[in-house]
Amino acid sequence: MKNYALVTGASKGIGCEIALQLAKLGYSLLLVARNNDELSTLAAAIEKDYKVKALWLAMDLSTAGGPQQVADWCRKKSVKIEILVNNAGYGLWGDFDTLDLEAQLNMINLNIKAHVALTSLLLPILKQGQQAYILNVASTAAYQAIPTLAVYAATKSFVLSFSRALRYELKDGPVSVSCLSPGPTDTAFAQRAGLDALKELADKFNMSPAVVAKIAIKGMFNRKAEIVPGFLNNAGAKLVSFVPKGFIEKMISKLYKVPGK
User: Distance between CA atoms of 187 and 184, rounded to whole angstroms?
Assistant: First the structure.
C-alpha cells in the first residue's frame, strides 16, 4: 500500500475528484474540508471502492488555528504523507467596494494563508520520503488582473508565484512542487462566488472536475511547474504575456461585468 495524500477542499469539486483518482492509484487519503457529513460519506465510499484508508477531519482552514490543527492531527495519526494538495479556496464576484470586507479577508485567509501555513507545517514530513509532491491549486485567474474578481485573482497570482519560487528552492531535494491553474470547471465555485448571472456563459466553457483532476495528477507526477488543463485555457495563459495589460483588463471586464452597470 502506498503512503498518504492529504487533500484540502476534498468534499466536492476538483478536490473530491483528485482524492478519488489518487485512491484509485492506491494512495490512502487524509481528507480535509468544512462539511463533516460529506467527508464521512466520501471516506466510506473510498474505503469500500478502492480498499485504501480514508481518514477525515472537518476543519475551516480560514480560521487562524485551522492549519495547525490539521498538522497536529496528521502527526497524531503517525502517517507518512507523500502528497499535499492545497485545493481549498473560493472566490467572490463584484466590485471591490461593494463586497463585504470580512468576507474578502476570509477569502485571503483561505486562499493564501492556509496554503502557506499547511505547506510550512507539513514540509518537514514530506521531506522525509524519497519522493514527495505538493500540488497547489490556483486558477487561470492567476495570469492577469480581473475586474470584479479583484481580490480572488490576486490571491491566485500569489499561489502561482509562491509555488514557482518554492519549487526552485526545493529543486535539489525530494519534494516536487506544481501549480494547477484550471479554467471554468463544473463545480460549486461559481455559485459560492455569486457568479450565477454568468452561468450560461460558463457552461459553454466548463471542463468536468474529473478531467481536470486527471490532468492535474498526471502533471504533478511528471513534476511539471505549471499545469493548465484545456487547450484554450493553456493558450490564454500564455497569450497574456504578449498583450498589453490594459487591453486584457478591458476585455475581461466585459466578460465579468456586473449586470446593470
Answer: 9
pLDDT for the residue 198: 53
pLDDT of residue 185: 74
Give the Cα separation of 89 and 172 in Å (integer): 29
CATH of 4-255, one of 3.30.70.1290, 3.30.230.10, 3.40.50.720, 3.40.605.10: 3.40.50.720
Catalytic residue status for 133: no
Element at 85 (helix H, strand E): strand 81-86
Place of cell 473560493: 90
Residue from 23, 22, 30, 25 nearest 48 by CA: 23
Question: Does 127 have pLDDT greater than 50?
Answer: yes
Q: Name the residue type at position 35.
A: N
pTM above 0.85, yes or no: yes
Query: Does 199 qualify as catalytic in the annotation?
Result: no
Q: Is the pLDDT of residue 188 over 80?
A: no
| Alpha-carbon torsion (38, 80, 21, 199), positive or negative | positive
Catalytic position from the list 90, 152, 204, 224: 152
Strands of the sheet containing 175-180, edge to edge, are 54-58, 28-33, 4-8, 81-86, 132-137, 175-180, 226-227
Residue 237 to residue 193: CA distance in whole angstroms: 22
- 182: nearest Cα among 6, 14, 4, 11: 14
Which of 50, 133, 156, 256 is labelled catalytic? Answer: 156
Give the mean model confidence (pLDDT) for residues 64-72: 97
